[in-house]
Amino acid sequence: MASALFRSASWRKKPASDLQKKFIVEWWLGNLGSTMAAEYEHKRQQVSKLTKGDVSNFFIRLKHGAAGRLAKKTVAGAAIEAAKTTEKERARQEEEVVHFRPLWRSSVPAFGDAWS
User: Domain of life here (predicted)?
Assistant: First the structure.
């Protein structure tokens, strides 16, 4: 196995490049729908501490499905999830309907009647 791919590889401990940091901040704010300056500054400070290993993990997760999970957390995604949950709940309630039928057959006399 290539030693450059190990989690303990030396390049993973180096600071992330400015372009990588800028991409992550822009992607983060773009997908969260926030344009406030204070939010931008907060995210930029968080990203300033990232290493190349952290950025690599971020890109791998982004490529393999993290974007979909993030979409569920946004407002539009939350509305879609709420609709799915409502539909599931409705289907579950329909399955809970109990159908009754008589416990006796017509050939069995009713209570108090004599057996023939």
Answer: Eukaryota
